[in-house]
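Severity: low
Component: inverse-folding endpoint
Summary: output formatting inconsistent between runs
Steps to reproduce: submit the following structure tokens with default settings.
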């Protein structure tokens, strides 16, 4: 009897080994699938060697001569798409609108697949529509946002002025500014300078990003590791951070509940609470947990990408001083000293806008986007993609495609200008995505980046801080690409002219 049971167990193990390493018929090409781990080892080795998963995927695309790569990471089937036509097809097709129902996304969303970023289906559609509607009412793309950005710009310029000719690290200052605007939209108030809540949130978000970078790998592929090595895998850290984030935002939400009165919608939280209390016809997804996760999603999505894009922009003009000079010459020639620059003025300074577009292309803050989940069996580039396959989108490969850009490895803003110096846009520049899941904060991000970039360069010449090594321009890899730490000197242009 024991022999029979042992034999059955061995056969079951052999069957599992066989099935776990067998690819579906006509699945996209890629590395060999080892039992239990799939392609994890090979992907990790290439990523470490080249400096990030985005480069590893690009390498595999050339290795297998395919713009779509098929992988298995742990027990998950994963497809990576690397060319613009395929990326556009993914982003614009409802077949790929899902989010993976995996451990990582649930952990990110406090154990539930809620919010906006991690949600899909009816929940995602209803909640995204609601948030977008009220963001527009609160000023997205209107004068309200520009007024808020100009107020933050004044604070930034004052901070730089108080630096008193000392070296300044711009990243943390920009982060506080971005978080301040998001706070005003979500919570409806502007925090005093001496209020430490935004600083506390910035620290939490920064630690959380590093933790989730760690969790998105081993812990997502092998969730059972949390029982064996909860500290080493980052699981306990994430639980602690989740609880801190929950406590942070729940305090704000509770205060809004106390101050609420019928019909109040002067910020996102009050608008959500008003909708919750409308009556029996309210969709069941309008809960306090959902509101909490929406707040967290807005702050996470908005703070990192906008801050890092601006950090990269200032880094690029330090590394390319001739570009900085051309920007300032154009600003001086177009705008009078007392002119209040608006976002609509961007078309008057095409070179400035071309520089910003080139930063988004060249620095690719989010090199890999997604993850998406196939909602049904489908075919992509003549390959079979089974239902519930995780799909990753390589913005990096699109933005570094020689067939599109010619010399993508060169930082050259002129690629977005015609022979007459007029701006030339390209549908292949996709920092905010495409389709129904296009970034909901795109208009705020565009306005903020343009107005802050122009406002700072209008007043200051920015150079690398003395006695510090020149930055390399090489980003730090992770879920997002982070600029290397650098410090600058800010030289007042008006005082210099005087």
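Observed output (run 2 of 3):
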């Amino acid at each position: 009897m024991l022999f029979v049971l042992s034999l059955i167990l061995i056969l079951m193990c052999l069957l599992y080994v066989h099935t776990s390493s067998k690819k579906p018929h006509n699945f996209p090409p890629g590395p060999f699938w080892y039992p239990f781990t799939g392609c994890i080892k090979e992907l990790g080795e290439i990523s470490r060697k080249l400096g990030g998963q985005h480069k590893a995927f690009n390498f595999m695309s050339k290795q297998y001569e395919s713009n779509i790569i098929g992988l298995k990471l742990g027990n998950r089937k994963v497809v990576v798409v690397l060319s613009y036509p395929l990326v556009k097809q993914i982003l614009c097709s409802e077949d790929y609108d899902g989010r993976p129902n995996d451990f990582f996304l649930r952990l990110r969303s406090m154990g539930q697949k809620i919010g906006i970023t991690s949600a899909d289906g009816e929940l995602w559609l209803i909640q995204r529509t609601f948030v977008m509607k009220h963001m527009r009412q609160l000023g997205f793309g209107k004068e309200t946002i520009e007024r808020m950005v100009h107020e933050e710009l004044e604070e930034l310029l004052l901070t730089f002025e108080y630096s008193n000719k000392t070296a300044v690290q711009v990243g943390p200052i920009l982060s506080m500014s971005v978080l301040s605007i998001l706070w005003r939209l979500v919570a409806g108030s502007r925090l005093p300078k001496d209020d430490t809540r935004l600083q506390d949130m910035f620290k939490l978000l920064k630690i959380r990003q590093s933790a989730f970078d760690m969790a998105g790998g081993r812990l997502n592929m092998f969730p059972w590791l949390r029982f064996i090595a909860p500290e080493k895998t980052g699981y306990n850290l994430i639980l602690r951070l989740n609880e801190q984030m929950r406590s942070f935002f729940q305090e704000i939400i509770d205060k809004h509940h106390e101050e609420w009165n019928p019909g109040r919608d002067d910020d996102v939280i009050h608008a959500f609470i008003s909708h919750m209390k409308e009556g029996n016809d309210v969709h069941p997804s309008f809960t306090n947990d959902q509101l909490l996760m929406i707040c967290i999603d807005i702050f996470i999505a908005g703070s990192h990408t906008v801050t890092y894009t601006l950090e990269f922009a200032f880094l690029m003009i330090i590394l390319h001083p001739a570009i900085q000079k051309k920007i300032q010459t154009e600003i001086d020639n177009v705008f009078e000293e007392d002119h209040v620059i608006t976002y609509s003025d961007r078309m008057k300074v095409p070179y400035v806008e071309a520089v910003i577009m080139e930063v988004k292309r060249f620095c690719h803050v989010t090199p890999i986007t997604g993850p998406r989940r196939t909602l049904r069996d489908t075919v992509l580039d003549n390959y079979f993609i089974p239902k519930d396959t995780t799909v990753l989108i390589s913005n990096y490969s699109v933005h570094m495609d020689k067939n599109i850009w010619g010399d993508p490895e060169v930082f050259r803003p002129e690629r977005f200008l015609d022979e007459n110096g007029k701006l030339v846009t390209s549908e292949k520049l996709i920092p905010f995505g495409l389709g129904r899941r296009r970034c909901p904060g795109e208009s705020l991000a565009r306005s903020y980046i343009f107005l802050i970039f122009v406002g700072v360069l209008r007043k200051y010449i920015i150079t690398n801080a003395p006695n510090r090594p020149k930055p390399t321009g090489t980003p730090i890899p992770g879920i997002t690409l982070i600029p290397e730490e650098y410090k600058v000197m800010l030289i007042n242009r008006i005082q210099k002219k005087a």
